[in-house]
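Everyone, study these two lines:
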Amino acid sequence: MKKSILIITILYGLGLSTSLWFYNHKPLIIKDVGQLLPTKIKEVHSFTSESELQSWVKEAIDNEEKISVAGMQHSQGGHTYYPNGMLIDMKSYNKILDYNEKERTITVQSGATWEDIQTKINPDHLALRVMQSQNIFTVGGSISVNAHGRDIRYGSLIDTVESFRLLTSEGDIINVSRTENSQLFPLVIGGYGLFGIILDVTFHLTDDELYQIRSKSINYEDYPDYFLNEVKQNKDIRMHIARLSVAPETMLQDMFVTDYELAEEHDLLSSYSKLKGDALASPQKFMLGLSRYSDWGKDLLWNVQEKFYVGQDGNYITRNNAMRTDSKFMEYDHPTKTETLQEYFVPIDEFTNYLDDLRTVLEKEELNLLNITVRYVNKDAEAVLSYAKEDMFALVLLINQGKSKKDIQKTEQVIQKMIDVTLEHNGSYYLPYYPYPTQAQMDEAYPRNKEFFQLKKQFDPNEVFMNLFYKEYSK
């Protein structure tokens, strides 16, 4: 009897210990902002000390672990994690290391956000040369996707980087610039974290300026000539953005443009230089919500947006404030749906015919398209995975879609058709999004991708730094 009780006690204890072990070692499922690629990983780590980060990476290398690097995780294709891998969350690694107002340079750790930089440099009337339309992202993440923005005089981010330090797949820290370890410079920028961990970056800055907003409605057929003759030729217009209608009756036909022209009243800069948010975040969020569920909502959102933006004509805004629109209106949380992005690049002279062909696809297919903005991107011949093989228009599409396997397949079919149209017009697409494109589409849009993946294996032969993007396309 006593022996039976002892056995039961031991088994109970083992069962309790096992339960506690599993409780403390629950599978860690991670998602990026797209929420379509939930993946089980081992651990998430965060560091504020360079020495601790380097020591941990060396230990992970010795243990043959796979490492992924993450910031805000707004890349939507698993670029920041890998199955059963280790994730480095860089957001706490965010110090400003050096700021030279006279030389107009700044050095920051890669977890710093563009908001951090703007807060530091704005009092001295300095500004960034290139930044996305929101300032919430980390520097390292933006460099890893080689982001671009509204500025039409500079190119993508690679044009503004002086140098950076990289923690390599061997655990070493090296300087990278156009003259030092130069082969890595165009690989890491736009390299999606596959060549190492960007520790800190030195950027060139520019002057903060006071702009006067010029806005007008325009038909899509008139847009290329307008941009080339009235925007690009006018050196006083520093920034530009356009919006295309997704409302059913005017889809991909009606547009409105916003130009940021250097104001003559330079002495008013200080009066407008206080950093601001977006006062219309709540109303826009409400109307965007309506547009998700009805054509009537799409019509309403378009009409309100057009009246608001065109109504700003003549207003003043600083460069720093023009580069910091609030993204809160785009926040979306739904149990069965998510919102994904696509971005397509087309040569300027292909724009009108491209929209005609794209409209034909969208009129036949079911796709809940919520918004399209248009930007201009200068040719980038430097980055190995360059999306701008010539001067191009960039169309950023916001799509509402379901999370189920059936919904993903349905969206995939439409997006692949849209990419085919883009490629037929000598265009390309942006890589930080869900892996809807086929391998053949990847090969056509990025003819240097084989070189990129070969160099990845050259610099990281043991494939220490990994992500789902690499797993999908390095074939």
About this structure: The first helix runs from residue 2 to 24. The first strand starts at residue 28 and ends at 30. The radius of gyration is 24 Å. The chain has a mean pLDDT of 92.
